[in-house]
Design a protein that fits this description.
Family: Belongs to the binding-protein-dependent transport system permease family. LivHM subfamily.
Distance between the termini: 36 Å
Number of strands: 2
Largest sheet: 2 strands, antiparallel
Protein name: Branched-chain amino acid ABC transporter permease
Pfam families: BPD_transp_2 (PF02653)
Membrane topology: Multi-pass membrane protein
Order of helices and strands: HHHHEEHHHHHH
Shape: globular
Radius of gyration: 18 Å
Main location: membrane
């Protein structure tokens, strides 16, 4: 049961990261390999804010805002020029951006791992009768679930969300209706970047913060996107929860094979249902 809860905590974090990733890809048609670097930006920005203020809440806000700011600068300065380019160009430029951002962070903070302590309101354990579990990991479930809920409200209950979802289905028709879709897409990119930074900071007390921590998270998030379906927000949530359980329960028996089982699940989905759990056939 402890591993099941670990899987839920990891899965909802992956869902939060993958939600931004899948919306960016579904809306902009961009394969963003810099998304993992934004996760790292959020973690380190939050760490710096915590050192300065000793407030975990302010650190979370700082991590999300820093990742959003970096994401918007990258989008306006370089990435927007590659929206209509071949997929290979997008992969190369975003992967190159990721390396540059990570090395800048390494130059500022060094390669030694940093630690963010668990906040005072997250210390201790909870006895649920059938399992004793760390309080902060339960709070992560709640925090990430609330963040995903807010993203859902924006996507499905606001005018911006309507434009974004319409852009995913038919960007040309949205432009013909006179809507400034590029401005909406900029907001989408910023929100996706903020989600990655937010996840990076709330994950920081669980692991050691290192500059390369974003690469594995990025790969796992792409698997989540494939499992859930490209461009599908509910699919990202479902895919994240499934991926979290696969990684956690496999680690219970042999941690070496956790990633192997995750990629095996992805391969099976691509064979049986290429559009993913909740994706639409032909969208990718």
């Amino acid at each position: 049961m402890s591993q099941v809860f670990n899987g839920l905590a990891l899965g909802i974090l992956l869902a939060l990261i993958a939600a931004g990733l899948t919306i960016i890809y579904g809306t902009l048609g961009l394969i963003n390999f810099a998304h993992g670097a934004l996760f790292v930006v959020g973690a380190y920005a939050g760490f710096s804010a915590y050192v300065a203020t000793e407030s975990f809440v302010l650190s979370i806000v700082a991590g999300a805002l820093a990742a959003m700011a970096v994401g918007l600068v990258l989008e306006r300065g370089l990435i927007r020029r590659f929206y209509g380019r071949p997929v290979e160009d997008q992969i190369l430029v975003t992967f190159g951006i990721s390396i540059v951002v990570v090395e800048i962070i390494r130059g500022i903070y060094g390669g030694v791992g940093q630690r963010v302590p668990v906040p005072s309101w997250g210390e201790g354990v909870v006895d649920m009768g059938f399992v004793t579990y760390p309080l902060y990991r339960i709070e992560i479930l709640v925090i990430a679930a609330v963040a995903l809920g807010l993203c859902w409200l924006v996507l499905y209950r606001t005018r911006l969300g309507l434009i974004v979802r319409s852009g995913i289905e038919d960007a040309l028709m949205v432009r013909l209706l006179g809507i400034n879709i590029q401005r909406a897409f900029l907001v989408v990119f910023g929100v996706g970047a903020a989600a990655a930074g937010f996840a990076g900071m709330i994950y920081a007390p669980i692991v050691s913060i290192v500059p390369d921590m974003g690469f594995r998270v990025l790969i796992q998030s792409f698997v989540v996107v494939v499992l859930g379906g490209v461009g599908s927000f509910p699919g990202a949530v479902l895919g994240g929860l499934v991926a979290g359980q696969i990684l956690s329960l496999t680690s219970l028996f042999n941690p070496v094979y956790s990633d192997v089982m995750l990629f095996a699940a992805m391969a099976l989905i691509l064979i049986v249902r290429p559009q993913g759990f909740l994706g639409v056939e032909g969208r990718a």
